[in-house]
Design brief:
Layout: E1 17-21, H1 25-36, E2 40-44, H2 53-56, E3 60-61, H3 75-96, E4 107-111, H4 114-129, E5 135-137, H5 139-145, E6 155-159, E7 163-164, H6 167-180, E8 184-186, E9 191-197, E10 200-206, E11 209-212, E12 215-218, E13 238-249, E14 260-262, E15 267-270, E16 275-279, H7 293-306, E17 315-326, E18 332-334, E19 341-345, H8 355-368, H9 381-387
Parallel strand pairs: 1-2, 1-12, 2-8, 4-14, 12-19
Antiparallel strand pairs: 3-7, 4-6, 5-6, 9-10, 10-11, 13-16, 13-17, 14-15, 15-16, 18-19
Amino acid sequence: MIGHPDGRGVAASERPAIAVIGGGIIGLAIGWRLAAAGCRVDVFDAGRAGQGATRAAAGMLAADAEAEPGEQALLPLNRLSRSLWPAFAAELEAASGLTVDLRWDGTVQIALSADDTARLRHHHAFARSLGLEQHWLTGAEALRREPHLRPGLGGALFSPGDGQVDNRKVAAALVVALRRAGGRLHEDRAVEEVVVERGRATGVRVAGTLHRADRVVLAAGAWSRRIPGIPPEALPPVRPVKGQMLALRMDPAAPLLRGVVWTPTAYLVPRADGRLIVGATVEERGFDDRLTAGGVYALLDGVWRALPGVEDLPIDEMWTGLRPGSRDDAPVLGPCPVDGLVLATGHHRNGILLAPVTADAVAGFVLTGDLDAAARPFTLDRFRECAA
């Protein structure tokens, strides 16, 4: 515990100093929470804030649709964070004066073939065994929801509790909210070293200058293992998982899709401004962030098979992102063997979804020394326990 959960009326020199490494949605959200609680917060990013994996994401809040066998332990955290999004978005919009376009249209997963239908039926049974709200739709019912989908669908699953948010707008709003709360954002300032003295993190070195801190929060996403100075036993098992994506341009007055649709090989996320986000490949390519012909073709072929009308849509943008994947595809949160170093990384495909619960849990741990019960299964200790 470092005290001063509310810094009002406390001299600036007496407020706890927090250095956050990483200016993506996770680092910005944690920094905003801590700055609002009265801490002296400095967020450092090697590039521009929100321009890495946060910018590359699609913004889906698909806790139910994304439930997969083998990841049951992550489901309660995903669903909890989804439930926090309405209040988080409202607070962020009030703090920044910017909108984030939070929508609750649900997620539709479609089947294009008999094999797809069998897989969806199996997924539906799995979801029901977990108590999730998912509804089976006939092909005709799916077409009534989304009339421009290819006729002859084998069926679909509808997850009404899922939603989406414009992740790029969230990042922009967090930058404003952080600064208004008194936090300082240092862009194009790579952390050269986490300074560890007598087993405790005491700050970060940036451009040759030591920035002292009472706590250092590691929220560097896929680059979390590349920050110098962190002892091996404290390094989170995080790697980059490449995703290629693109956006098509629809007519906002007559969009081809109204809600999020998952095809067997791609997902489609319509934005209010007419953009149709199409994603995403999943590739183990290290830090190679180049677009490839095969990746783009796979996305376009997948979306065309489900939504033939995209054939005439212009391509608005193409990009790649590097997700921070952990060994079990779940985040790494909270304490580590280095006192004063706090982890907030490894969110893989759920960084946007898990931003509210991560911000609350990590900020709470920094302020009180107590990690929220929902986050305790996701500390670094779980990997050491597996090794033992």
